[in-house]
Write a structure and sequence with these properties.
Blueprint (H helix, E strand, L loop, with lengths): L3 E4 L3 E7 L15 E7 L1 H11 L4 E8 L2 H13 L6 E4 L5 E7 L5 E6 L13 H4 L4 E7 L7 H13 L3 E6 L8 H9 L3 E5 H8 L4 H9 L5 E5 L5 E5 L2 E5 L12 H14 L4 H15 L12 H4 L1
Parallel strand pairs: 1-4, 1-8, 2-6, 4-5, 8-9, 9-10, 10-11
Antiparallel strand pairs: 2-3, 6-7, 11-12, 12-13
Amino acid sequence: MTDVLCFGNLQLDILCQTVTELPPPGGLRMIDAVDFALSGNAGSLAMALARLGVSVDLAGYSGADVIGDQFRAMLTTEGVGIDKLFRHPAAGTGTSVIALAPTGERSIFFVNGANEAFNLDDVPENWLQGPRIVAVTSVFVLPQFTGEAVTRLFRRAHAVGARTLLNISWNSEERGLHFLATALAQSDYFVLNYDEGRQLTGYDALSDIFDRLLEFTPATIVLTLGAEGCCFRTESGIERVSAVPVHATDTTGAGDSFVAGFIAGLIRGLPLSDCAKLGCQVAAYAVTGTGAYIRIPHHKEDS
């Protein structure tokens, strides 16, 4: 039986480092390296979960191209189930060009490609009968992942006994909390970073961000804080979990890696604070080089 069913984007990341500024129009600028990696919110999450010993299926589309075929082989090698990952006959595999700053922060240009062809309402009932957690990522990146579409999927997942987890991306169009309201009401866990929380709520203080989000959801809310770790709120107040101190060279996929560690903790039945600690540990592995999942040790090595 599959532990987790992931929905979201699968991307080819073209990683350019180190970038301090773009060349002028028509100009050239030499950088240190260009690397290529399997990524995307759902791709990174699924790969990280598999490395953590969690049984996981990835649902969506890849392109019917060389990149898509290579990614399918890589996913299979890592143990990710791909029977729900289809080849789109026309659209290419999603691609991102990422400029890495000396701090490890990134600026991203991307196309969704085949990812935009997947419709959550087309998910068959039998896909939801088995996974213990249904995780939806890439909200605000994939235009078809609307609040209403996620809501319908989560209701169906709850009907067959699965828990639901929502993880969003930066809301470049500033669609706000009302766009997510019905999906948040159906979420058991809501994971987002501090900047996303501030953008959604309009507040800077952690307590105000939690107060505003809890007006919309009964979910356990986990707010990641980058180098400061993460936090969540309990009856006694906001509990913080410190990050593992490492030298970050590439923060691409850090959030997805945190979610993978957090979910792995849930699957293992750990207390919430230990789930958060595991999320911080996995994120720390991810940021120490290019790509995300590559430095996450396999569960048998990390046990």
